[in-house]
Amino acid sequence: MTTTRRTVLAATSGLLAMPNVVRAQGETFRIGALNPVTGAGSPYGSGMQRMIGAAVEAINAAGGVNGRRIEVFSEDTQTNPQAAVLAAKKLIEVNRVRAILGTWSSGVSLAVIPLVNEAEIILMNTSGAPALSVPPANAKGLSYRFQATNDRFGRAFAEIAVREGFRRPATMAFNNASGLGNTEGFRRAWAAKGNQNGEHVVYEPNQPSYRAELLRVLATRPDVIVMGSFLPDTTIILREWFQTGTPMKWIIPGWAANPQLVQALGPAVTQGIIAVESVSNEGAPAFAEFDAAHRRAMGNQPGTANAYAAMTWDMAHTLALAIEQAKSFETAAINAAIRQVANPPGEAVATFAAGKAAIAAGRKINFEGASSVLDFDQHGDVTPDFGVFFIEQGQINRRYVVKI
Amino acid sequence: MFGALLVAGIVHGLIIGLAAMAVTLVFGIARFPNAAAGDTMTAGAYAGFLAHRATGSLALAGGAAVVAAGAVSLLGYLLVFRPLARRPVASLLVAAIGVAFLIRAVLGLMFGHQQQVFQVPLAWPIEVMGLRIPPMDITLAAVAGVSLAAAFGVLYLTSIGRQMRAVADDPDLARVSGIRPVRVMVALWLLAGAAAGIAGLMLGVKTVVSPEMGWEGLLSAFAAAILGGIGSPVGAVLAGLLLGVAQEVSTPYVGFTYKIALAFAVMLAVLLLRPRGLLGRVEEVR
Predict the structure, then answer these.
(1) What residues of chain B lie within 8 A of the CB of A207, using their CB?
(2) Which of A120, A161, A326, A384 has an alpha carbon 20 to 30 Å from A207's alpha carbon atom?
(3) Hey, are the CB atoms on A242 and B216 less than 8 Å from each other?
(4) Which range marks the domain in which residue A115 is found?
């Protein structure tokens, strides 16, 4: 018999018509790695993506989930909500992924979450906006946040302000969910400690000057300005502030007060800035595993260099353990199992293999992650620890860790 | 505080004014809204940034910005707008948006999307009659002043400037008077590009350089061009100053989140009371 296009077509359609069970033999559990490889998140994005790959490799080496291998499809958000939506659509509709891991920046996560809800799949993000916790964004409870909320960042800022002995803090916020979340969290926590809040200014992006905003704040003579900001606006505001010659301290989130800021402004302007970033669960056995994988994949860079990569490493582990626990590939079952495997009580486990063995033995597990102890509250949020960094002579040095 | 905001507003206004001049010149002579003016600014800012990083001289950076933005502007004319001349305004507007995208994409590919910063010395303000003024603002105002003087010198003191104004006035009459339109157009696009380049350089020095910076500033340039009276370079600069000062001085009272809205409220008010803009003329429609 000669093979014609017609017979090939007939054979393939016959294959497609076979029941699911037959095709399931080589079937994989598909997930999407949707990370900021380019754009503002680019210092973190490729590390985040590679750590998803490394975690999945370890999971597959331990026998996969429920007998299936996990297969990763990678996409770049460009740290841009529009590009992220296109990429998420492709992952969902073309690759048929069952979970999306590792969106960074609130704008991106808020843009992707409606697609995820529509497709009834799980989203694991590293964004801070409080809106991601609650309906309508998280109405179905399918979204899990591995980073601290902006509100928790604000609470950490307040702890630091007390510890550093500040008396008269003012706040400045970039006018979006993340910026406002930081400063509102701070003001609430600061007032809850019985203190008086200072001046609060909300500013617009892309302005040629922030002098009016700054002068309004400086007129109230604060001893520290707490920021909910991003890199470009922070660069402009600090430069204008320095040129006013007013001595003062700053508390700034770590994604704005980073090495690029120091490079842009130099050691004189940035001297004494307090940068706050969530830090990984560095003493934990899971962190040691992650650190080794990070060094292998990222040219011997230590895992402490990228807190977001620790989060994506944990995402793959949490998801895989939940699938084992659920003994199902259905979203609802997996979703119900996530808190079972991540939250206490239970046997603390640090690797997928250990967790899988414990689940098989019928024990309740508690995955303690590399990024944090990873206990999800009712909103799917975690509470990591915060590193407090001081910029001194152009170096960003960690002084201490704050727990909230 | 009022004085300090006035100074900030003037510098802000000079940037808007220069960009608006680039828009209004093209509108007056080539007769379409040039949406690529913002990205021409960005090209100027990047050229200035590279020159400044290589030499440390702000004057050379200004020269590089003028040359690069002028070249980008002229290329846009020769490759896109000239072949499309005499097409409807809408076609030219869409083409200009396309040129804008192209410039932005090329800059993004060449330099990446992360911010670049002019390493200018930061100094404490100097006191002038009780006003605390950052030295960089004085430098930038001087740069803008010199550039504006040069632009108006070309427009009002040279033969090609007179020809440009003649074409702006009445293209057909200019042609029958023996003015060669291509020469005028080349001069126009070079001048508009140079003005945009200086605006981009100033914006870049004051803020950060990124591929999106010019596009994001385009709206206020258009507002100032309309407010000043379409086709009037003096009006564009005055309107830019008015918008810049109005934004800086008033927002502490009305709220900083209304900064952008305020510029348009001013524009609306002026257009309702004086539809031809500050210095525009009423044109007969035939």
Answers:
(1) 207, 259
(2) A161
(3) no
(4) 27-147+282-330
Residues A331, A92: Cα–Cα separation, whole Å? 14
Beta bridge partners of B93: none
Cβ within 8 Å, pair A202-B1: no
Q: What is the mean pLDDT of residues B100-122?
A: 89
With CB atoms and an 8 Å threshold, state whether A206 touches B251.
no
Does the pLDDT value for residue A131 go beyond 60? Answer: yes
Q: Is A254 inside any structural domain?
A: yes
Whether A67 and A163 share a structural domain? no
- Taken as a whole, chain A contains a residue count of 404
Please check whether residues A197 and A97 belong to one and the same domain: no
> Average pLDDT, stretch B232-242?
93
Give the pair of three-digit tokens for residue A233.
């606006």
Within a domain: residue A85? yes
Asked if the Cβ–Cβ distance from B256 to A215 is below 8 Å, we say: no
The predicted-structure confidence for B192-211, as pLDDT tens digits, reads as follows 999 999 999 999 999 999 99
Q: Is the residue at A93 inside a domain? A: yes
Residues of chain A contacting B114 with CB distance shorter than 8 Å? 40, 42, 260
CATH assignment at residue A224: 3.40.50.2300
Pair A288, A272 in one domain: no
What's the total number of domains in chain A? 2
Query: What is the average per-residue pLDDT within A132-137?
Result: 92
Across the interface, do B1 and A245 touch by the CB < 8 Å criterion? no
Q: Copy the structure tokens of residue A282.
A: 């560095």
Do A159 and A274 belong together in one domain? yes
CB contact under 8 A, B206 and A208: yes
pLDDT number for residue A324: 96
A7: contact with B, CB 8 A cutoff: no
Inter-chain CB pairs, A–B, below 8 Å = 92
Helix (H) or strand (E) holding A250: strand A249-253
Q: How many helices (H) and strands (E) does chain A have?
A: 14, 14
> What mean pLDDT value characterizes chain B?
90
> Measured between beta carbons, which residues in chain A are less than 8 angstroms from residue B259?
203-204, 207
For the four alpha carbons of A177, A180, A181 and A182, in that order, the dihedral sign comes to positive
Query: Within 13 Å of residue B283, how many CA atoms lie on the same side as its CB?
Result: 13
CB contact under 8 A, A175 and B259: no
SS3 B123: coil
Angle at B169 between CA B168 and CA B174, to 5 degrees: 85
State what percent of residues in chain B have pLDDT above 70: 98
Q: In which band, very low, low, confident or very high, does the pLDDT at A22 lie, cut at 50, 70 and 90?
A: very low
Cα separations in angstroms, A302 against A98, A104, A305: 31, 21, 6
Single out the residue in A330, A347, A370 at which a domain terminates.
A330
Of B124, B210, B256, the CB nearest to A232: B210
* Pair A172, A274 in one domain: yes
d(C-alpha A251, C-alpha A244), whole Å? 18
- In-domain check, residue A368: no
pLDDT digits (tens, 9 = 90+) for A255-282: 899 988 999 999 999 999 999 999 999 9
Q: Which residue of B has its CA nearest to A265?
A: B119
Give the whole-angstrom CA distance, residue A146 versus residue A375. 10
Instruction: Calculate how close chain A gets to B100, using CA atoms only, in Å.
Output: 18
Are A175 and A286 in the same domain? Answer: no
Q: Say yes or no to pLDDT of B264 above 90.
A: no
CA pair distance B184, B190, nearest whole angstrom: 10
- Chain A CB contacts of B8 below 8 Å: 209, 211-212
